[in-house]
Design brief:
This protein is of the alpha/beta class. It folds into three domains: 313 residues, TIM Barrel (Alpha-Beta Barrel), CATH 3.20.20; 150 residues, Urease, subunit C, domain 1, CATH 2.30.40; 87 residues, Diaminopimelate Epimerase, Chain A, domain 1, CATH 3.10.310. It contains 19 helices and 24 strands. The longest helix is centred in the last third of the chain and has 18 residues. The two termini are 42 Å apart. It binds zinc ion. Zinc ion binds next to loops.
Length: 612
């Protein structure tokens, strides 16, 4: 099962009471950010040579720019643009020149002219905005892509649509022994109702069906699948999961957490081709959103094979840092296996240098680990998935072996345990520069906010979740109360504390569209007009901060800030061109932005130079 964070299916508008409200105007308290426009002066050839050298200086960088010529005409020159470079002074430029996949000039149109030769392609940006490619540092591209290519229920909003999609898929795939897929939301079944086997039996009576929920924490199966797995009224629940049952013990057709495995182990495993097909689907989608680098938040050995296969064929149009999955059934002995995979599967655009530790569950089933009990649930405080003392030892050992640790932590106790573990590692090892980061960060105890900076831990938020939808209003706030709710997704406070914030989508749990995520980070309102009041408005961040979180800061998380993440001479030409300037539009329109062109190392991977 994938690590899926909160059961937060943003694609089920049926859940959203405000879905039909028109987008409201910008709140009066929101001040448009004015950007300081400064232009770089053309760099001398000596500086270019110097930058080309330091571009290869970082030993843990995924892949390094090829040494190219440092003089002569450029391959491509973009002129007349609004180029937001995201360099240290957040400067703007008019022109960018590219040679051999790298940026060789950033500055004024006049300066760029000097690099135009007879074969140089000159592209007039017509004042359009250019940014560095986005880097999504928490995403599940292979699983999400496979799901989208299988029986995909994402985006459907009624039970009738689900059943029709399943029936159609089964009819169009007569040779598939199992009908697999997912993306359903519990909310679609209605209050008190279940994802029942009878519903599936109606449309697929003869073949086994197993469909995972959008959050990955449940599976919906039919009678044939239960029969193949040998699950009946007499089957006990596994230790780490629940078989949903009728009062007489009869399985209903939905399985929770560890119980999914009882059926899943009988389904044919995804082969390499299925995985690479899913990955290809995801890459196309991500490139179209302007994403050129990712951190895959849950990678198994078979996924690494898919990444390497595409990379070796020259089809991996994405830089990838892979988070190897920490198996909670094992202890420190699994370190050896991680080292073997890191050695074997790092190369080209892939680096298997991170270990993912899932420290708690999710709020809505009270498995997120909390410092204080959930309201109205007795003494329930959720479950720390890794015993905190073991977590300290594990993180210390991983850090000593120079792995980056990527935590999943939702509740305030899990977040504290993650920080405590890094603190223990720092005490034992010093700061080895391994750039540990914590994802999700739904509820942070304010006392822990200063610790991110102090411990040099990156706060990896999924900003799309930071508005008051039903998940927050109905499934979260009633169970944690108003005082704690103030500290839900405190992105602004963490940023103000001086800590580094980075962004990821957690696709396919929710959209991978960075513009929707940036809009919520800036407005704390639903990107499609779902809400008309900002949620904890003090936690809004400015547009430049949000852009940095998706570019240079995420590049830092992926240890490639010396070659990506900003538009600077010597870096890869991972660049995107937008249909509007984000600084010139009301924040409520950011989510509507389209990417016209995405370049990876100077090569168009979405759109083409001629279409601008
Ligand atoms: Zn995730």
């Amino acid at each position: 099962m994938r690590d899926r964070a909160p059961a937060k299916n943003r694609r089920a508008p049926g859940r959203l009471r405000f879905a039909k409200l028109a987008r409201t105007s910008t709140p009066a308290t929101f001040h448009k950010v004015t950007a300081m426009r400064t232009f770089r002066t053309p760099l001398a050839a000596a500086s270019l040579a110097f930058l080309a050298v330091i571009g290869t200086g970082c030993s843990d960088t995924a892949s390094e720019p090829q040494a190219g010529t440092t003089s002569g005409p450029a391959d491509v020159v973009f002129t007349n643009g609004s180029i937001y470079t995201v360099d240290a002074s957040r400067s703007w430029a008019e022109a960018v020149a590219i040679r051999d996949g790298r940026i060789v000039y950033v500055g004024s149109d006049a300066g760029a002219n000097a690099l135009v030769g007879p074969d140089t392609r000159v592209v007039d940006l017509d004042r359009r905005m250019m940014l560095p490619g986005f880097q999504d540092v928490h995403i599940h591209p292979i699983g999400g892509g496979m799901e989208a290519r299988a029986c995909d229920l994402n985006g459907l909003t009624t039970l009738e649509e689900y059943l029709e999609a399943i029936e159609t898929y089964a009819r169009e795939h007569p040779d598939e022994e199992w009908i697999l897929g997912g993306g359903w939301s519990m909310a679609v079944f209605g209050p008190g109702a279940n994802a029942s086997k009878e519903l599936l039996d109606r449309v697929v009576p003869d073949r086994p069906v197993m469909l995972t929920s959008a959050d990955g924490h449940s599976a919906w199966v039919n009678s044939r699948a239960l029969e193949i797995a040998g699950i009946d009224a007499g089957t006990p629940d596994p230790e780490d999961g629940i078989i949903d049952r009728a009062p007489d013990g009869e399985p209903l057709g939905s399985l929770q957490e560890g119980a999914i495995g009882l059926v899943a182990r009988h389904a044919p495993p995804a082969d390499l081709e299925t995985r690479t097909d899913g990955l290809r689907y995801a890459i196309d989608m991500l490139n179209a959103y302007g994403i050129t680098s990712i951190q895959d938040a849950h990678v198994e050995e078979e996924d690494l094979a898919a990444y390497r296969a595409l990379d070796q064929r020259g089809e991996l149009d994405l830089r990838v840092v892979a988070s190897l999955w920490w198996d909670r059934e094992q202890g420190l002995e699994q370190l050896e296996g991680f080292e073997r995979l890191r050695d074997r599967d790092t190369g080209g655009r892939v680096r298997a240098s991170t270990v993912k530790i899932m420290q708690d569950g999710v709020m809505e089933n009270f498995t997120a680990a909390m410092l204080e009990p959930y309201l109205g649930q007795g003494d329930t405080r959720g479950i720390p998935m890794v015993e905190p003392e073991l977590l300290k030892r594990a993180v210390t050992a991983l850090d000593a072996a120079d792995f980056q640790v990527h935590f999943h932590a939702i509740g305030d106790a899990a977040i504290r345990q993650a920080l405590d573990a890094v603190e223990a590692a720092r005490a034992a090892n010093g700061n080895r520069g391994n750039r540990h980061h914590v994802s999700h960060l739904e509820l942070i105890d304010p006392a822990d906010i200063p610790r991110f900076r102090k411990l040099d831990v990156v706060a990896n938020f999924q900003p799309l979740w930071a508005f008051a939808d039903d998940y927050i209003e109905e499934l979260t706030m009633p169970f944690i109360g108003p005082e704690r709710s103030r500290w839900l997704y405190p992105i602004g406070s963490v940023h103000a504390s001086g800590a580094m914030i980075a962004f990821g989508s957690d696709w396919s749990v929710s959209t991978a569209n960075p513009f929707e995520e940036i809009e919520v980070a800036v407005t704390r309102m639903g990107p499609k007009g779902e809400t008309n009041e900002p949620f904890v408005p003090d936690e809004r961040i400015t547009l430049p901060v949000a852009i940095a979180a998706f570019t240079i800061n995420s590049a830092w998380v992926n240890s490639q800030e010396d070659v990506t993440g900003s538009i600077e001479v010597g870096k890869y030409a991972d660049l995107i061109v937008l249909d509007r300037n984000l600084f010139d539009i009301p924040p409520g329109e950011i989510s509507e932005t389209r990417v016209l062109l995405t370049l990876l190392e100077g090569k168009p991977v979405h759109g083409d130079l001629g279409s601008l």
